[in-house]
């Protein structure tokens, strides 16, 4: 039987709402290497998902988020793999400190209209517009084993995401 183990992640999009810019990170190593992604990573034992979001942004871009807003929940399933990635998506528009490059991530601001989808995970094209317009959403994406093609997906807007 094909048992799947759920691994929990945070994924944080820092926004400059005044100038309509979004902070992405160029992943320099590990899973998703050479892609532009939101900041985030695996939930550690004994921390909440909000603590995970704040810690990962500090580790990856050297800034301290003042608050985060949960806006989405996505599950990624990869053919031939036992793990399911359960990703809690947050947006944030206030922080302290200076954004700077780290060992793992090179952060960079992008205008909302110039997001580099051709160098991002393919599913991002489906839900990025919802995230940028502060809509709440949930979805599932089943990827082929090559991690490039989406086999099936579902995606919906929701009124309330806090309980998921
Ligand atoms: N398909 C897709 N779209 C958008 N974002 C993501 C994906 N897949 C992903 O993995 N991600 C995001 C979710 C997470 O925020 C990161 C991956 O986290 P990862 O770098 O593996 O976790 P860390 O805990 O930072 O890893 P290490 O510190 O152990 O290297 O990408």
From TrEMBL:
Any one annotated GO CC term: nucleus
Main location: nucleus
E.C. numbers: 3.6.1.56
InterPro entries: 8ODP, NUDIX_hydrolase-like_dom_sf, NUDIX_hydrolase_CS, NUDIX_hydrolase_dom
Record keyword Iron-sulfur present: no
Cofactor: Mg(2+)
Name the UniProt record assigns to this protein: Oxidized purine nucleoside triphosphate hydrolase
Top-level taxonomy: Eukaryota, Metazoa, Spiralia, Gnathifera, Rotifera
């Amino acid at each position: 039987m094909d048992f799947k183990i759920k691994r929990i992640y945070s994924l944080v999009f820092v926004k400059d709402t005044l100038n309509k810019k979004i902070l992405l990170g160029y992943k320099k190593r590990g899973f998703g290497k050479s892609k532009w992604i939101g900041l985030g990573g695996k939930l550690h034992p004994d921390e909440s998902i909000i603590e995970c979001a704040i810690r990962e942004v500090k580790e990856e871009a050297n800034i301290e988020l003042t608050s985060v807003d949960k806006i989405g929940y996505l599950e990624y399933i990869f053919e031939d793999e036992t793990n399911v990635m359960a990703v809690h998506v947050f947006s944030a528009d206030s922080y302290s400190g200076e954004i700077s490059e780290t060992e793992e991530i090179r952060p960079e601001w992008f205008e909302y209209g110039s997001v580099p989808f051709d160098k991002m995970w393919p599913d991002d094209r489906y839900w990025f517009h919802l995230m940028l317009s502060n809509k709440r959403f949930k979805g599932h994406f089943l990827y082929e084993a090559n991690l490039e093609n989406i086999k099936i997906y579902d995606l919906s807007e929701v009124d309330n995401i806090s309980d998921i």
